[in-house]
Amino acid sequence: MSKLLGGKLALILGIANRWSLAYAIAQAFSREGATLALTYLGERQKGAIEDLSKDLNVAAVLPCDVTKEEELTALTESLGGLGRPLHAVVHSLAFANREDLSRPFVETGRAGFLLAQEVSAYSLVAVARATAPLMTEGGSLSTLTYLGSTRVVTSYNVMGVAKAALEASMRYLASDLGAQKIRVNAISAGPVKTASARAVKDFSTILDIVPARAPLRRNTDPAEVADAAVFLASDLGRGVTGNILFVDAGMQVMGW
């Protein structure tokens, strides 16, 4: 069976540990023949990402703090130094202060609001600007979102607002970059036990609700999200852009 991503170079941003959705995506991309470039945030994380990369088809492990323009510029230069076009980018980055995910949304401070927007939404724009010039053969830029962007999910708060901005940014980027044959999409994954998700107050309650309410009567498997990312990055997804692909056991169709 042919590899769906054979011959493609893919950049994956946002792996924190082996439970990250970004790591599941990296595994699936590697399985399908892609060569990977991974990023890490700060020297403390570098060793962990290098260890995770040992089981993957990785060409480079690169530093990238998306809040620093100089690191984005360095990322572009490092990827260019690999001597081949970039075909796919996966943006799996989000952050909000823990206290802003545990108190009423109306109490969100200015600094916390802006931080969540910068890391979780604006970073997609910054990453697109840094990588689009390297996608000389066209390609795919995918990001990860969640149902809390359009519906109120208890304690998701400022992150829901940031995800709404992320989804709007995805659509505008799809319009801007389409002429370069670059497709931009989002995957709306159901709740999965990740380190970032555990920062949401009462997250375990959400995991209990989904199997009782979702049409498939179960929670989302990270491998399902990863396979959807493969589809979007591969030629099978060549006609798909500006879309949100729900991989959430059907939860988005249900009333509460």
Explain this structure.
- The protein has helices spanning 21-31, 43-53, 69-80, 110-131, 157-177, 203-213, 222-233, and strands at residues 9-13, 35-40, 58-63, 88-91, 139-145, 182-189, 244-247.
- It is of the alpha/beta class.
- The protein has one domain: Rossmann fold (3-Layer(aba) Sandwich).
- Strands 3-2-1-4-5-6-7 form a 7-stranded parallel β-sheet, with helices on both faces.
- Strand 1, helix 1 (21-31) and strand 2 form a beta-alpha-beta unit.
- It is globular and about 50 Å long.
- The protein starts with 8 loop residues before the first strand and ends in a 9-residue tail after the last strand.
Structural class: alpha/beta
Residues in helix, %: 25-40%
Overall radius of gyration? 17 Å
Count of individual domains? 1
Supply the CATH architecture. 3-Layer(aba) Sandwich
Mean pLDDT: 94
The CATH C-level name is: Alpha Beta
What series of H and E elements makes up the topology?
Answer: EHEHEHEHEHEHHE
The fourth-level CATH homologous superfamily is NAD(P)-binding Rossmann-like Domain
Please give the number of β-strands.
7
Count of discrete alpha- or pi-helical segments spanning 4 or more residues: 7
Q: Order of strands across the widest beta sheet?
A: 3-2-1-4-5-6-7
Q: What characteristic shape results from the CA principal axes?
A: globular
Outline the fold blueprint.
Layout: E1 9-13, H1 21-31, E2 35-40, H2 43-53, E3 58-63, H3 69-80, E4 88-91, H4 110-131, E5 139-145, H5 157-177, E6 182-189, H6 203-213, H7 222-233, E7 244-247
Helix pairs in contact: 1-7, 3-4, 4-5
